[in-house]
Amino acid sequence: MLGGVVVIAAIAIPLMIWVRNSVSATDFSKASSKLSAITKLNFDKTIKDNLSSIQLSTDASSDQLTQQANDLQAQKAKFDTAVASLAVSRAVVKDKGAEANFAKLKTQVAKIDTAVTTLDEVYRQILPAVAPLIKTLANYSDYSSSDIPGIIAEVQTAQTNLTKIENGLTDANNRTLVANLLQQLSTALPLLQQAASSTSGSLSLTQPMYLAVAHIQSAIQTWQTALAAQAQVIDFSSAATSLNNYLANKINS
Predict the structure, then answer these.
(1) Is 42 left (phi over 0), alpha (psi -120 to 50) or beta?
(2) Rounded to an integer, what is the distance from CA 28 to the centroid of its chain?
(3) Are 234 and 111 in contact (CB under 8 A)?
């Protein structure tokens, strides 16, 4: 009788372990539903679109820019919650293939997290600091020489604002932008002061003013190119498709 008990135990224990670690079609189906909830948010597309289209000239007030940042963070919170729910699903935790595909998805999530930081700093700090000046300079050809003192004052205000935020930025592209803008504004200021003493009645004919604007636009374009490249490396949809295909195969197998 004792021998029979030993045999039963020898069979039962591995069976219990197998049951505890097995993943059913229902488990894979639940994971698939959780993945679908993530992709329906389209948060990756929102982030990529923002990165690719960001401008430093805006009519939005500081409060409106803060609201944009808050809205983005609210969307991110929903996205993070949905990803966390998938992360603890039985299929992802217990199945090696699902776990591996989810790891690839998380790599893309990390890129999205970085991009959110980039955009949050733009909306909360960089745009309020420099947007009024950028908008003014974009229309420099419409001004006369009598407008230059006001433009000089705007440049000095932007320098002060950018200096205040420079050390607090965490995103590398944003830090580079602010450093470049400060450098170009320092270069532009004496050029604008030179333009102020010009006898020309039109800033569009004043070479120093043209150079000042060109220097600043160059810094902005370099930054926009970097953000567009950042958007390009986010490929959340491909990672999500791979995981979805894997889960579908498991459900139907």
Answers:
(1) left
(2) 31
(3) yes
CA atoms within 13 A on the CB side of 36: 9
* Domain regions of the chain by residue span: 114-252
Per-residue pLDDT of the chain (253 residues; tens, 9 = 90+): 555 555 555 554 454 444 455 899 999 999 999 999 999 999 999 999 999 999 888 888 889 999 999 999 999 999 999 999 999 999 999 999 999 999 999 999 999 999 999 999 999 999 999 999 888 887 766 767 778 888 889 999 999 999 999 999 999 999 999 999 999 899 888 877 777 776 555 544 456 667 778 888 888 999 999 999 999 999 999 999 999 999 999 999 8
Nearest to 54 by CA among 123, 109, 140, 129: 123
For 21: left if phi > 0, alpha if psi spans -120 to 50, otherwise beta; the answer is alpha
CA dist list (Å): 91 to 23, 31, 102, 200, 226: 6, 6, 10, 73, 37
Nearest to 93 by CA among 28, 19, 16, 13: 28
pTM of the model: 0.85
Query: Do residues 147 and 177 touch, judged by C-beta distance below 8 A?
Result: no
